[in-house]
Design a protein that fits this description.
Blueprint (H helix, E strand, L loop, with lengths): L1 H22 L3 E5 L3 E5 L6 E5 L5 H14 L3 E3 L9 E10 L2 E14 L21 E7 L13 E14 L2 H4 L2 H11 L8 H31 L1 E4 L1 H20 L5 H7 L4 H33 L5 H12 L6 H8 L1 H20 L1 E5 L1 H57 L1
Parallel strand pairs: 3-10
Antiparallel strand pairs: 1-2, 2-9, 4-8, 5-6, 5-8, 7-8
Helix pairs in contact: 6-8, 7-8, 8-11, 10-11
């Protein structure tokens, strides 16, 4: 009987231990030169996910908006009138000399839109397709280019086509989709309205899944404990500052100019910039540690096919190889993107999502932001009150000390 009880007790203890091991997903992981993370839980994390379904009327609006960016036209056999769209070639000159930006081919222009300088569009009225004409206009005195402002210019213009934009009801068809897909650089396999709709739904689904996974990662990160290598953090901040400096050079600017605009020295500006970048850099490093920790624990390996799958999922374009992505984006960026893709797939499978409407989730997000803002404001007020109280207390102590000193001095004098 005792042996039977011991066996039952042993099985119970073993079962409890196994259940605890299965339910726990706590892990500790260290990456040399980066830091250590202790993740308390990464499986079964709860989060909301927006419903990616698109109603017919919403899909119609989406397609109409897309159509307006690249509408279809029908050719008109008539003279140019106000309101018509014309396709033209033009070559501008001042005193017989061509000027920068004054020449173009196959440009669409709607007469009366005000897209060109005053007097240009009006002089095209009455022209026929195939007709050429030289027109004279004067650039406004306040024209953005000082080299052209207030000057008279001649334009040799050829009307290639006179056309009219088709309504969305008439223009949205399979042929338009092919043109639109090419213009947007999308997968050439999207060759019909139905396939474009499928792509739009898939794209929204991917976005909502990414949003939900980001919520899960935020929760994992908030509960995790980190010990970051500060040398690495500072190095990453330095790299971010250098990247911003290089970006400014493309616009003919530098940090010294930005510092002067804010009445600061370059060192002061850099120090503030480093402070602003610190949180972003640390968040990136923390995400990197979480990704690597989960991949290491779950034995999730990166394959060459993952690169192609990742690019297809996020862009709709098939056939990109690892080598192509490494060349296009750089090895580090491409690898981090694939890690993110693999972790996203894993967390989509292992997390607990509640599907809600996008409006409901957005409302909850706004309310959460308001609560956080209120807490921040309250904490700031308490901090200021505490500082004022300490200052008042210090002032009182100082006055008491002064009074005591004066009393001592009078006592000494009386003696």
């Amino acid at each position: 009987m005792k042996i039977k009880k011991l066996i039952i007790l042993g099985v119970t203890v073993l079962s409890t231990a196994l259940l605890a091991a299965c339910s726990s997903s706590s892990i500790k992981y260290t990456k040399d030169g980066v830091g250590t993370v202790t993740i308390k839980k990464y499986k079964g994390v709860e989060a909301d996910m927006a419903d990616a379904a698109i109603a017919d009327d919403e899909m119609k609006t989406i397609l109409e908006n897309a159509y307006e960016t690249a509408p279809s036209y029908k050719t008109l056999s008539k003279d140019v009138e106000n309101g018509d769209t014309v396709n033209i070639d033009f070559e501008g000159s001042i005193n017989g000399e061509k000027f920068e930006g004054g020449t173009a081919q196959a440009t669409d222009l709607t007469i009366g839109s005000g897209g060109f300088i005053e007097g240009f569009e009006e002089q095209l009225i009455g022209m026929k397709a195939g007709e050429e004409k030289t027109i004279t206009v004067t650039f406004p005195a306040d024209y953005y280019s000082q080299d052209l402002a207030g000057k008279e210019a001649q334009f040799k213009v050829k009307v290639n086509e006179i056309k009219e934009k088709l309504s969305s009801d008439e223009g949205i068809n399979d042929e338009w989709v092919k043109t639109f897909v090419t213009a947007q650089g999308l997968d050439k396999g999207i060759d019909s309205v139905d396939k474009l709709k499928e792509f739009i739904i898939s794209n929204r689904k991917n976005q909502y899944e990414a949003d939900a996974v980001n919520t899960v990662i935020d929760k994992i990160m908030k509960e995790a404990e980190f010990d970051l290598n500060q040398e690495n953090v500072n190095k990453k901040i330095d790299e971010s500052v250098a990247a911003q400096e290089e970006s400014l050079k493309q616009y003919g600017m530098d940090l010294e100019q930005l510092a002067q605009q804010q009445n600061k020295t370059v060192d002061q500006y850099k120090e503030e910039l480093r402070g602003q970048l610190k949180e972003t850099v640390e968040s990136g490093i923390k995400a990197e540690l979480i990704y690597d920790a989960i991949m290491n624990t779950e034995k999730l390996n990166i394959t060459d096919q993952d690169y192609s799958d990742m690019y297809e999922k996020y862009t709709g374009e098939k056939g990109k190889t690892k080598e192509q992505l490494n060349i296009e984006f750089g090895e580090d960026v491409a690898e981090q993107a694939v890690k993110s893709y693999i972790i996203s797939k894993f967390l989509l499978e292992k997390s607990k999502f509640t599907v809600k409407s996008a409006e409901e989730i957005e409302k909850a997000r706004q309310e959460s932001m308001s609560v956080e803002a209120a807490k921040t404001s309250e904490a700031s007020s308490e901090s200021e009150s505490s500082s004022e109280g300490k200052a008042s207390e210090a002032s009182s102590e100082s006055k008491a000390e002064t009074t005591a000193a004066n009393a001592d001095e009078k006592t000494s004098s009386g003696n």
